[in-house]
TrEMBL record:
<dbReference type="InterPro" id="IPR011066">
    <property type="entry name" value="MscS_channel_C_sf"/>
</dbReference>
<protein>
    <submittedName>
        <fullName>Mechanosensitive ion channel</fullName>
    </submittedName>
</protein>
<dbReference type="Pfam" id="PF05552">
    <property type="entry name" value="MS_channel_1st_1"/>
</dbReference>
<comment type="similarity">
    <text>Belongs to the MscS (TC 1.A.23) family.</text>
</comment>
<dbReference type="InterPro" id="IPR008910">
    <property type="entry name" value="MSC_TM_helix"/>
</dbReference>
<dbReference type="Pfam" id="PF21082">
    <property type="entry name" value="MS_channel_3rd"/>
</dbReference>
<keyword id="KW-0472">Membrane</keyword>
<feature type="domain" description="Mechanosensitive ion channel MscS C-terminal">
    <location>
        <begin position="181"/>
        <end position="260"/>
    </location>
</feature>
<feature type="domain" description="Mechanosensitive ion channel transmembrane helices 2/3">
    <location>
        <begin position="66"/>
        <end position="105"/>
    </location>
</feature>
<dbReference type="Pfam" id="PF21088">
    <property type="entry name" value="MS_channel_1st"/>
</dbReference>
<keyword id="KW-1003">Cell membrane</keyword>
<dbReference type="InterPro" id="IPR049278">
    <property type="entry name" value="MS_channel_C"/>
</dbReference>
<dbReference type="InterPro" id="IPR010920">
    <property type="entry name" value="LSM_dom_sf"/>
</dbReference>
<feature type="domain" description="Mechanosensitive ion channel MscS">
    <location>
        <begin position="107"/>
        <end position="171"/>
    </location>
</feature>
<dbReference type="InterPro" id="IPR011014">
    <property type="entry name" value="MscS_channel_TM-2"/>
</dbReference>
<dbReference type="InterPro" id="IPR049142">
    <property type="entry name" value="MS_channel_1st"/>
</dbReference>
<feature type="transmembrane region" description="Helical">
    <location>
        <begin position="65"/>
        <end position="84"/>
    </location>
</feature>
Length: 278
């Protein structure tokens, strides 16, 4: 009985191999050929991305997504050769997609945000941005997270889902940025004289954008003093050093010309009760 069982099993196995043998050979050939084709396509894609000077984060994302799609198509072709129905493939991928989507809702949101950032480029690595109450230079843009480095040396990692849904103030996207200095003077100060002194001081800055205006205007008349706004333009990457340098330059120029910035004065009047000796 055992001998008949093994003989029957051997017969069925051989029959199965003869029946599916050609498909296995074709599938193996398709797998080997497909791997070589994928490697060739990826080599062409990497060369094209390199020549286009695509940003590193976007390049990595495109390469990873391309590999996933190409191998997915290859497995679909192999499954079709082996006789697996297309509807089965779709059902498996659909069920897997739903399960992964439910398990990784936050990560998918960050993934979608990363795609939007890499495609529309509201900022890039090296830009100074203000987002979610954080100001810093963009260190790295991953597909899920963005890292910025603050002026005091902190690294802040933010989910791309939050970043893509927030207002992003990119302070280095434009080449030039305007410096605004708010200065206060007494009403006795000669406005034209002060304007000439401030402009002279600001014009001495070596990195000033000479093709853009340096101007000084009376901005506000208060109760006890007048407010003057002095403006000039500088390259965006030099903004903060230039801001402090221009503030010092204006102060030194005013000191050299003997113009002082008013100090608020307060008068205190004390009422003396009747009969008290003063």
């Amino acid at each position: 009985m055992n001998k008949d069982f093994w003989t029957q099993l051997k017969s069925q196995l051989l029959e199965f191999l003869f029946e599916i043998g050609p498909e296995l050979v074709y599938a193996l050939v398709a797998l080997i050929a497909g791997i070589f084709v994928i490697k060739f396509v990826m080599r062409l894609l990497k060369g094209a991305l390199k020549r286009s000077r695509t940003e590193l984060s976007l390049k990595t994302f495109v390469e990873s997504l391309s590999v996933f799609l190409l191998y997915g198509f290859l497995f679909f072709v192999i499954g079709s050769i082996l006789g697996i129905k297309t509807t089965s493939f779709l059902a498996v991928f659909g069920a897997a997609g739903i399960a992964i989507g439910l398990a990784l809702q936050g990560s998918l949101s960050n993934f979608a945000g990363g795609v939007l950032i890499l495609v529309f480029k509201p900022f890039k690595a090296g830009d100074l941005i203000y987002v979610n109450d954080n100001l810093g230079f963009v260190e790295k843009i991953d597909i899920l997270y963005t890292r910025i480095k603050t002026f005091d040396g902190r690294i802040i990692t933010m989910p791309n889902g939050n970043v893509s849904n927030s207002d992003v103030d990119n302070r280095t996207m434009e080449k030039y940025r305007r410096i605004d200095l708010d200065l206060k003077f007494s009403f006795e100060t000669d406005l034209d004289e002060v304007r000439a002194i401030i402009i002279r001081g600001m014009n001495r800055h070596p990195k000033l954008a000479l093709h853009l205006p340096v101007d000084v205007w009376l901005d506000e008349i208060g109760e006890y003093q007048m407010k003057i706004k002095a403006r000039c333009w500088i390259e965006s990457v030099e903004y903060w050093p230039a801001y402090w340098e221009q503030l010092e330059a204006v102060k030194k120029e005013l000191d050299a010309e003997g113009v002082t910035i008013p100090i608020p004065k307060y008068s205190i009047n004390r009422e003396v009760p009747v009969g008290e000796n003063v």
